[in-house]
Every structure is written in C-alpha cells, then in structure tokens.
C-alpha cells in the first residue's frame, strides 16, 4: 500500500460534526449582545460619579453567580417564588426604564447610596449586567442543547469582558470628556428606554392574558 501524506493529513483534520468551537462562538456573542456592557458604559460612569467608586470585582462575581444560578435553577427558583419568566422580565424592564429616564432627563430616581455594596448589587449586577434578558437568554440557551460546558465557558468569557470594562470606566470618561459623556449618556438613555419598552411589551400581554 502506498503512503499518502495528503490522506494522513486529512485524517487529522476535525470532522464536520465537531462544531463545539462554532457553538462556543455563537453562545459567547449571543450573551455579549444581550449583556451589552459597552452600551451600559454611560450609566455605569454616572453611577460611579454619584457613588465615588464601584466594586468592580464584586459586581462581576455577583452577576456571574446570578447567571450560573439561573442556568441550573432559574425556572425552579422562579416557580418557588410563584413567578414565571414573563413576570421576571417585566419587573426587570421597569428598573431599566427608570435608569433610562435618569440618563435622558437628568433626574435622580436611584438616590446616591453611601453603601457601595448595596448599589453594586442593584442596579449594577442586576439588572445592568445580569438583567432579566440575560438570565432568560441563558435559560433558553441551556435548553437549546448547546451543552453546559460551552455555556459556562461563554459566561466566563463575558464576565472577563465585563470586569475589564468596569475597571476602564475612568479612562473612558476622560476620553469622552464632559460634553461627550453627556451626549453619549442621553443617546444610550433613549436606547435603554427602547429596550425596556420592548421587553415590557413582549412579556406584559402574556401576563395580562393569564390574569384574565
């Protein structure tokens, strides 16, 4: 039998069914788009200015814990509280809507907290990072046969990105400058309002129908 280097090389190539890397990319980019940490930069800068500081590591760890918790126990946890995914999403959308109003109108609904730990949890870890959209997306991805390992790695990658962005808020604010920061904050405030309205209108009709 003749030795064929091309054939041996072909045998070493990944088989067409081995699509784990593609799945990882899909899940990672999906979560990145839903978390939208870059779009949250203006409001995070505003919160940091009001509080004086943000515990970046704690915010990242808490949001990561929420993501993993909802990955494994999301629906069961909501069921224990007598809630469903729709009502959870509507509640998160209201908080997001109020944050958007703050950015656009320059009002202060979330009063400045002296306790940094409290604000690190709400509204930073939830709903800005691990919001209702992120948590319900994670539950959906787990049910879409992507595999727990791939989903966990995708969550970890996004948490690293979140931490880097949180640590870079100071340089980003200096880069934009006062005028640029105001313009960007108002623009993303409108985007935040639109996202909140979309989440609300998507889930509220089902809740109203279930009440009837």
Please give a handful of descriptors for the protein shown.
disordered N terminus, 0% strand, 212 residues
Care to describe what's here?
- The protein is globular and about 45 Å long.
- Mean pLDDT is 79; it is low at 1-19.
- The chain has nine helices and no strands.
- It has one domain (24-211).
- The N and C termini lie far apart (76 Å).
- With 212 residues, it is mainly α.
- Helix 2 (20-35) crosses helix 8 (148-167), helix 4 (56-80) packs across helix 6 (116-129) and helix 4 packs across helix 7 (132-142).
- The chain has helices spanning 5-12, 20-35, 41-51, 56-80, 85-105, 116-129, 132-142, 148-167, 169-211.
- The chain is 80% helix and 0% strand.
Short description:
This protein is an all-alpha fold. It is 80% helix and 0% strand.
The portion of residues forming beta strands comes to under 5%
Q: What is the chains' assembly state?
A: single chain
**Class inferred from helices and paired strands:** mainly alpha
Summed up, the domain count is 1
Mean pLDDT: 79
Number of strands: 0
Low-confidence stretches: 1-19
What global shape is seen? globular
Describe the main β-sheet briefly: none
**Helices and strands, in N-to-C order?**
HHHHHHHHH
Helical segment count: 9
Distance between the termini: 76 Å
Return Rg in Å: 21 Å
Helical percent range? Answer: over 70%
List the helices and strands and how they pair.
Blueprint: H1 5-12, H2 20-35, H3 41-51, H4 56-80, H5 85-105, H6 116-129, H7 132-142, H8 148-167, H9 169-211
Helix pairs in contact: 2-7, 2-8, 3-9, 4-6, 4-7, 4-8, 5-9
